[in-house]
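Try it yourself: sequence plus flavin-adenine dinucleotide, in.
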Amino acid sequence: SPPSSPLSQTWDFIIIGSGASGIPLADRLSETGKSVLLLERGWASSGRWGGAWKPEWLRGTNLSRFDVPGLAQLVWWDEVVGNEGVWCADVEAKAACLLGGGTGVNAGQFYLPTWDDFDANQPPGFRSRDVASALGKASQRLPWTDTPSMDGKSYLTNGSYMWREALTNSSAPGHFRFITANDNLNDRNRTSSWTEFFFQNGEKGGPLATYLVTASQRKNFKLHMNTTVARVLRDGDVATGVEVESTGPGGLTGTINVTPGSGRVILSAGVFGTFKILLRSGIGPTEEIQRLASHSIEAAKLPPRKKWINLPVGHNLDDGPNHLLGVSVQGMDSYPWETLWSSTRDNPDIKKYLGSRSGPLAQLQASIGPVSWDTVLGQDGRKRVIQWDFSSGKNVQQAPGDGGYMIFTSNLNLGHTSRGRLTLTPNLTVSIAQPPYFTDASGHDFSALLTSATSLLALINATILQTQPGSFFLAPPPGVGLEQYLRAAKPASSNHWVGTARMGERCGEGVVVDASTRVCGMRNLHVVDASVVNGLPTANPQAVFVVVAERAAEVIRGLGGRY
Ligand SMILES: Cc1cc2nc3c(=O)[nH]c(=O)nc-3n(C[C@H](O)[C@H](O)[C@H](O)COP(=O)(O)OP(=O)(O)OC[C@H]3O[C@@H](n4cnc5c(N)ncnc54)[C@H](O)[C@@H]3O)c2cc1C
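Structure, out:
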């Protein structure tokens, strides 16, 4: 390889994966002047980094489809745009395999963590008092807004305002208080807020527009895309480097080494990516590695059996199950989002967006909220937080009434105890062996959902159904009780996966990484991403992963040079 290639030098830090955690961590570690290589298996999403996938009307701008908030939901509309290569083909769940990881494609909803997010889930070292400075740093680097359009207005708001009025109606049963979520971090019991986004200047924003920009200004930092890490190379308890495979134009194939005696390998490849790399490196449940060794297409590449490290990687899988309540309501604002892709610059909303980053395209579809939180105290003495996301619109195809609807989506977040498990199939696909929904033997998780849904239903009945002529429940459908409906519904994923490299204060039963973020049994191999967050936080989780990265940077910097 040529002398400037990352293959021909050694690195103080090799970070694998450019997601919500990997980018902030790379930025902070590169501040030290040490050499940092950030490896990403995917291609450039945002236009700032060379992403060029765009509709005709973005030609000649420095934006790609991934930079326009109003186009973010295209990832769900294969029939409009196709989404080839957006999702990791080797993962059964939705995981984004492009620059920015989840932050490159996601909805940008950004809620700063509550203290409970750390105190209820993480060990000493990552409790609220330990992460206070990390939280301060994260919130400085990632500004947020509830009014993304640069003209300071919100668009397509009639459903949102109608619901806000209903849920804060003080004469209605179980009404909510309205707050600004990111100014009131620990107020999550029957409170509502407009949705907070990390959008900036009418564009997507997030780590790709902030942390990665500062990292890239440093000579000691290098980002390499289209490069998949197959495994960590180990010499006993020391990671010597990584084996990489090119998976796109300009990608690298070969071995990349860390500086002997002091270099570190850090896995930030997300819940699914980190799980797979660890197993392929001979670190994980013995029975999983045994299966790979017996059947998989790469059995010969696994380290010899005596070097396997038996850890519960892939256990403790968590995600928030989604359920929907829906009401048919006439006269909701609707917008032809699906026609935007093939539209032209004559379209007044496109003109407005290109001219002043204003109008509906500066927003995430109609999802300005409100978002609501309810805290339910279970008979087991645990508090569980249920988040209700609101959206409204009009479905022209299947129109009961005039086709208008309000949807209330539950996310069973902080405090639930159900957990699942990942597995790696012989053809190296990451599969969900056990989904983490309502697996608790006691049923307290379901009871919390039912309690919260019952009170929300009563609130909707006392408000929207009284004030809006012709409105009626779509879900639960007429004649079906709430409990029966919820029990029969297959929960959808909230795509908020966490927990599969469980963090403990120190290594021991059930622990995969200690509070220095080091993989147990290894001296210089770390995990810093959603995998080390032991349970779901209160709200959409990406801010927690940024705070974890900020805290991990402090901890890793504190470990000093030699290991
Ligand atoms: C469609 C969608 C919408 C979402 N919306 C929101 C939201 O609005 N708000 C919110 O808070 N959360 C949201 N989330 C969740 C959030 O984006 C993720 O939880 C978060 O990005 C996870 O961060 P991470 O750093 O652990 O991993 P990721 O962000 O997934 O990053 C991992 C990176 O590692 C790379 N990688 C994986 N394996 C390898 C390998 N072997 N070699 C090299 N690179 C590798 C991947 O390509 C990826 O870039 C959403 C998720 C999805 C899928």
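One thing you can check immediately is this: Residues 444-462 form the longest helix (19 residues).
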